[in-house]
Amino acid sequence: MSLAGKKVVVVGGSSGIGLATAELARKEGAEVIIASRNAERLKAAADKIGATAIVTDVSSDDSVANLFRTSGAVDHVVVTAAQLRSGPFKSVSMDDVRATMEGKFWGAWRVARAAQINAGGSLTLTSGFLSLRPRPNSAIVSAANGALESLTRALALEMAPIRVNCVSPGIVDTPIRAAMAEAARADMLAKIAAGLPAGRVGVADDLARQIHAFMLNGFASGAIIYIDGGGLIA
Ligand SMILES: NC(=O)c1ccc[n+]([C@@H]2O[C@H](COP(=O)([O-])OP(=O)(O)OC[C@H]3O[C@@H](n4cnc5c(N)ncnc54)[C@H](OP(=O)(O)O)[C@@H]3O)[C@@H](O)[C@H]2O)c1
Predict the structure, then answer these.
(1) How many folded domains does the chain comprise?
(2) N vs C: which end of the chain shows fewer Cβ within 10 Å?
(3) Is residue 233 part of a domain?
């Protein structure tokens, strides 16, 4: 089985895990649409992999509606979009925590509602290891991830026979940490890698391959898979 002839939308597809997923789907012969906010970065990514770009902000109802009006019915939808703002629970601003939920959780909710997915198709959401392994100063991200995992199970029932699944990444080296100084980022990733059973941090393609499996495996529904180099058991 392959994705040849299928139509795949990757929301968050201009970077990191979303871009790797879009690229893999293109290699398999799918027609791919990628969506995110920064038009220039999105176009560059689309041109590179031979996808169509539709500028979209998942924090806007109208923008998400426009994406799926333009795409028409599709076979598989993947949501990786997130921009996370967190901080110490007692002092992080409500604007920041609301913005995190608006993009990461309500964004996925909006996409699930607006997408018209063909029979036999799938929706894949992206949570993250903080749902099960919280760390100080990131309660809102833990909560958003936990909510997405619950939403996955609920939607797998309510959207059936469309299959709904969730991938939860561990630490993956993507542009999500582009704001960090390079030396500090490399040092942090090396320390994390040393503590993981897999002996390394993830690369975007590790996650793309799991998302790809969700698209193709007709028996996967309501599943939450942790691709984290063994981080949950370390
Ligand atoms: N990398 C990790 O270590 C890690 C760990 C745990 C969980 N995750 C989760 O995995 C997912 C993908 O992460 P990544 O590492 O691939 O991140 P990334 O490289 O920063 O990519 C994020 C993508 O989402 C888009 N995006 C952000 N906000 C958006 C919005 N409001 N509307 C539409 N698009 C938006 C970005 O483009 P624009 O900014 O142009 O919109 C970009 O295409 C995220 O949900 C993240 O929380 C990642």
Answers:
(1) 1
(2) N
(3) no
